[in-house]
UniProtKB/TrEMBL annotation:
Transmembrane segments: none annotated. It comes from Demequina zhanjiangensis. This is Pyridoxal-phosphate dependent enzyme. Keywords: Pyridoxal phosphate. Its cofactor is pyridoxal 5'-phosphate. InterPro entries: Cys_Synth/Cystath_Beta-Synth (IPR050214), P-phosphate_BS (IPR001216), TrpB-like_PALP (IPR001926), TrpB-like_PALP_sf (IPR036052).
């Protein structure tokens, strides 16, 4: 976009994506290459910047929303932050429904962007938060973008994230690891990689039974996101909460990468795949930064 003097400066939405890829120097097994794609470098700090702007743009094209309207969304955190930022710059009011227990940094960030935050009982999980968002949609005339069924969510990764991964690895990537929350990233990246390089194996990551890892979910069948498509997945692997935290700490202390706990889970699986496949080039998508979790004490 150009200003009054005809000088081109990017807008916020135009700097989403093209996040850097870096190589692990100390944790990768010998004879392998393990790469981290740093989605925390997006302007609102996570991979969710991509679908946030994509979903709002799609709703505008479809005539569902115009600036000034009220948007509501249920999220565990990063989508809420990204949508709050997008709503602020695009002129929308935003209500976020989130289960109790999110880090203080996340809640404060959402409110800093001007979002109204509605917390729901932690023990009822994201499923109940989604139900509350539907209630607000009915009672307050809000528009629910519904990241769990919105095709613009995975679409934001098909042409952008997958292409970036292929180009930034110079066509050498052999495995890609994505954590599964809304499942938009893993669905879109696997679909995009299937078109670009069908030999590349894309894996999803879920928490092990009983584990709780911010940003990663194993959904009950009745709440499985409608956007989820495992057609192009090589498989889904599980990671324990302890392993995700341990790996996040190792990334910070040995690689200088302060990443979130879901990134710790993705990195743990990426390192496993590298060990199992000598000579491989394994990339994991790091959804956000670790500074959003400092108040939880997980980094000691």
């Amino acid at each position: 976009m150009t200003d009054d003097a005809g000088v081109a400066f990017p807008t916020l939405s135009e700097i989403v994506g093209d996040t850097p890829v870096v190589r692990l120097q100390r944790l990768a097994p010998e004879g392998t290459t393990v790469l981290a794609k740093l989605e925390g470098n997006n302007p609102a700090g996570s991979v969710k910047d991509r679908p946030a702007f994509s979903m709002i743009a799609a709703a505008e094209r479809d005539g569902r929303i115009v600036p000034g309207d009220l948007i509501v969304e249920a999220t565990s955190g990063n989508t809420g932050i990204a949508l709050a930022a997008a709503a602020a710059v695009l002129g929308y009011r935003f209500v976020l429904v989130i289960p109790e227990g999110s880090s203080r940094e996340r809640l404060d960030t959402m409110r800093a962007y001007g979002a109204e935050v509605v917390e729901t009982p932690r023990e009822q999980g994201m499923e109940h938060a989604r139900d509350v968002a539907e209630q607000i949609e009915r009672e307050r005339g809000a528009v629910r973008l519904d990241q769990f069924s919105n095709p613009a969510n995975p679409a934001s990764h098909v042409d952008a994230t997958a292409r970036e991964i292929w180009e930034q690895t110079h066509g050498r990537v052999t495995h890609v690891v994505c954590t599964m929350g809304t499942t938009g990233t893993v669905t879109g990246v696997s679909r995009g990689m299937a078109a670009l390089a069908p030999h590349v194996k894309v894996y999803g990551v879920q928490p092990a039974p009983g584990a709780s890892i911010p940003g990663i979910r194993a959904w009950p069948q009745e709440y499985l996101p409608a956007i989820f498509d495992d057609t192009y997945l090589a498989g889904v692997r599980e990671v324990s909460g302890e392993r995700a935290i341990e790996t996040a700490r190792e990334l910070a202390r040995q690689e200088g990468l302060l990443l979130g706990l879901s990134a710790g889970g993705a990195a743990a699986v990426a390192l496993e795949l590298a060990s199992e496949n000598p000579g491989s080039v394994v990339l994991f998508v790091a959804p956000d930064r670790g500074d959003r979790y400092l108040s939880t004490g997980v980094f000691g």
